Automatic annotation (TrEMBL):
<keyword id="KW-0408">Iron</keyword>
<dbReference type="GO" id="GO:0006082">
    <property type="term" value="P:organic acid metabolic process"/>
</dbReference>
<dbReference type="GO" id="GO:0005506">
    <property type="term" value="F:iron ion binding"/>
</dbReference>
<dbReference type="GO" id="GO:0020037">
    <property type="term" value="F:heme binding"/>
</dbReference>
<protein>
    <recommendedName>
        <fullName>Cytochrome P450 family 2 subfamily W member 1</fullName>
    </recommendedName>
</protein>
<keyword id="KW-0472">Membrane</keyword>
<keyword id="KW-0479">Metal-binding</keyword>
<feature type="transmembrane region" description="Helical">
    <location>
        <begin position="213"/>
        <end position="235"/>
    </location>
</feature>
<comment type="similarity">
    <text>Belongs to the cytochrome P450 family.</text>
</comment>
<dbReference type="GO" id="GO:0005737">
    <property type="term" value="C:cytoplasm"/>
</dbReference>
<dbReference type="InterPro" id="IPR036396">
    <property type="entry name" value="Cyt_P450_sf"/>
</dbReference>
<dbReference type="GO" id="GO:0006805">
    <property type="term" value="P:xenobiotic metabolic process"/>
</dbReference>
<dbReference type="InterPro" id="IPR050182">
    <property type="entry name" value="Cytochrome_P450_fam2"/>
</dbReference>
<dbReference type="InterPro" id="IPR001128">
    <property type="entry name" value="Cyt_P450"/>
</dbReference>
<keyword id="KW-1133">Transmembrane helix</keyword>
<dbReference type="GO" id="GO:0016712">
    <property type="term" value="F:oxidoreductase activity, acting on paired donors, with incorporation or reduction of molecular oxygen, reduced flavin or flavoprotein as one donor, and incorporation of one atom of oxygen"/>
</dbReference>
<keyword id="KW-0812">Transmembrane</keyword>
C-alpha cells in the first residue's frame, strides 16, 4: 500500500487516473458507443483483449460466421482495442463493395504491412498514390499481353515444361509444390521479362522465400503483433518475416538496377515499364514513381501474383483425387473438345461448361482469400448505422462463398453450382473469391 501513497496524495495524478477510468468505461461500454455513434451491434468487449477471446486466430473467417448468426450480417467487433465493422453474407458485402465503392475504398493501417511497404505499392496504398499506381499497373499488364493471345502462348509453353517435369517422376510420388513453378514463372515473365529454368538458383530461392513468407503471414504470433504492435519488443515472428522480405527485395533491386542500365520505351516487363515511367518523370515534382513505390509495387505482384494461383492449382489436384468421378467427367469433356495432338485454348472454355464449372467451384470451395480489410474514407451511413471515417471494415468473402441463400450446397464441392438445368455454364454474381471487379484488385 505504501507504493501507491505518493500517487494517491498527488491531486494531478488522481485527476488523470479518474479521466482514464472514465475514458475506458466510455470506450468499452457497448451501450454508450452504439447510442452515440450508432455503430452496429456486437459482442461486449473485454478490457485490453476486446473480443479476441471469441476468435479462432487461425480461422478467423469461421469465427466471424458464427458471430454473424447471433449479431446479424453487420456487426461490430473489437480486435484488442481496435474497432472493426464486419460484413457477412452476399447482400451486405455486395451492397458495401458495389454501392459504397468510394466510401470503402481505403486500406486500414495494418502494422506488419506498414513496416513492409510503408504505404507504397499496389495493394496497401491509399489515395492518389494507389489510384495512379493501380491504373499504371493495369495498363502495363495489358500492354505486356495479359488477356491476349501472346500470354496464352507463353502459358502453353510453360504447360509443356510442367508436363515434362511431371513425366520425369516416372510414376513415382512427387511434391505438389512442383505445381508452384509454372504459374510463378508466368508471373515472373511479366515482371522480369523472362522465365526461369526450374532449377535456376534465383528462381528456387524466390519460391522458397515466397512460401516461407506466406506461412509466417498466417502465424498467430503475427496476428497478435498486428493487434498489439508493442508486442514486437517480445515477439520474433515479424522480425523473421521482415528479414525474408528484405531477401526478396535484394533480388528485386538487382533486376530494377539492370533495367535502369538499359532504358527503353519498348518495355519487355513490368519492371521496365516502371523504370521508364520514373525516367520520364525525373523532372516532375512529387512524382509517385520513386524507388520505394517501384520496389513495393513489384513486391506486391511477386507475392500476390504467385501464391494464389499456385495454391489454387494444388487444391484443384487434391479435389480431383478426392472426387475421381468429377475428374473423369472433366477428362471426357476435354477429350471431346480438344482433338488429339491439339492444345486447349482459352476460347475452348465456351465448349467446356463442366470443366469451367469445376474451375470456378474449386475457387469457391477453398475460400482462398477469407477477407480483405478496408476502412472508410469518409463518415459513412450504411444500413442505418454510422461508420466514422477511418474505421476498419471487414467484408467476409468466406461468408459470400458459403452463403446458403446463394448456393444450394455451400459446404460441399459441387460443380453444379455453376451449371443451369441444361448443363450450360453460369457465372453467379455471388462468386467473389477476390472481392469485386470495381474494388482494389488488380
Amino acid at each position: 500500500m505504501a507504493f501507491f501513497m505518493p500517487f494517491i496524495s498527488d491531486p494531478a495524478l488522481i485527476c488523470l487516473l479518474c479521466a482514464l477510468l472514465l475514458l475506458g468505461a466510455f470506450y468499452f461500454s457497448p451501450g454508450s458507443k452504439n447510442s452515440a455513434f450508432k455503430l452496429p451491434p456486437g459482442p461486449p468487449p473485454l478490457p485490453i483483449i476486446g473480443n479476441l477471446h471469441l476468435l479462432d486466430i487461425r480461422r478467423q473467417d469461421k469465427s466471424l460466421l458464427k458471430l454473424a448468426e447471433k449479431y446479424g450480417p453487420v456487426f461490430t467487433l473489437h480486435f484488442g482495442s481496435q474497432k472493426a465493422v464486419v460484413l457477412t453474407g452476399y447482400e451486405a458485402v455486395k451492397e458495401a463493395l458495389v454501392n459504397f465503392t468510394d466510401e470503402f475504398v481505403d486500406r486500414p493501417p495494418i502494422p506488419i504491412f506498414e513496416q513492409i511497404q510503408h504505404g507504397n505499392g499496389v495493394f496497401f496504398s491509399n489515395g492518389e498514390l494507389w489510384r495512379t499506381t493501380r491504373r499504371f499497373t493495369v495498363s502495363s499488364m495489358r500492354n505486356l499481353g495479359m488477356g491476349k493471345k501472346l500470354i496464352e502462348e507463353k502459358i502453353l509453353e510453360e504447360l509443356h515444361l510442367l508436363i515434362a517435369t511431371i513425366k520425369s517422376s516416372r510414376g513415382e510420388p512427387f511434391s505438389l509444390k512442383s505445381f508452384n513453378a509454372a504459374p510463378t514463372n508466368i508471373t515472373f515473365l511479366m515482371l522480369f521479362g523472362d522465365r526461369f529454368d526450374y532449377k535456376d538458383p534465383t528462381f528456387v530461392t524466390l519460391l522458397r522465400l515466397i512460401d516461407e513468407v506466406m506461412v509466417l503471414l498466417g502465424s498467430p504470433f503475427l496476428h497478435f503483433f498486428n493487434f498489439y504492435p508493442f508486442l514486437g519488443l517480445f515477439l520474433k515472428t515479424h522480425k523473421i518475416l521482415l528479414k525474408k522480405i528484405e531477401d526478396v527485395r535484394i533480388i528485386l533491386r538487382n533486376y530494377i538496377q539492370i533495367s535502369k542500365q538499359d532504358l527503353s520505351e519498348n518495355s519487355l516487363s513490368y519492371i521496365d515499364a516502371l523504370v521508364f515511367k520514373q525516367h520520364k518523370e525525373t523532372n516532375k515534382k512529387d512524382s509517385l514513381f520513386h524507388d520505394e513505390n517501384i520496389i513495393a509495387s513489384v513486391l506486391d505482384l511477386v507475392m500476390a501474383g504467385t501464391e494464389t494461383t499456385a495454391t489454387t492449382l494444388q487444391w484443384a489436384i487434391l479435389l480431383m483425387m478426392k472426387y475421381p468421378e468429377i475428374q473423369k467427367k472433366v477428362q471426357e469433356e476435354i477429350g471431346t473438345v480438344v482433338q488429339s495432338g491439339s492444345q486447349a485454348t482459352y476460347e475452348d472454355r465456351i465448349n467446356m461448361p463442366f470443366t469451367n464449372a469445376v474451375i470456378h467451384e474449386v475457387q469457391r470451395f477453398i475460400t482462398l482469400l477469407p477477407h480483405v480489410p478496408r476502412c472508410t474514407s469518409v463518415d459513412t451511413h450504411f444500413r442505418g448505422y454510422f461508420l466514422p471515417k477511418g474505421i476498419t471494415v471487414i467484408p467476409s468473402l468466406t461468408s459470400v462463398l458459403l452463403d446458403k441463400t446463394q448456393w444450394e450446397t455451400p459446404h460441399e464441392f459441387n460443380p453444379n453450382h455453376f451449371l443451369d438445368a441444361d448443363g450450360k455454364f453460369v457465372k453467379k454474381e455471388a462468386f467473389l473469391p477476390f472481392s469485386t471487379e470495381r474494388t482494389k484488385q488488380t
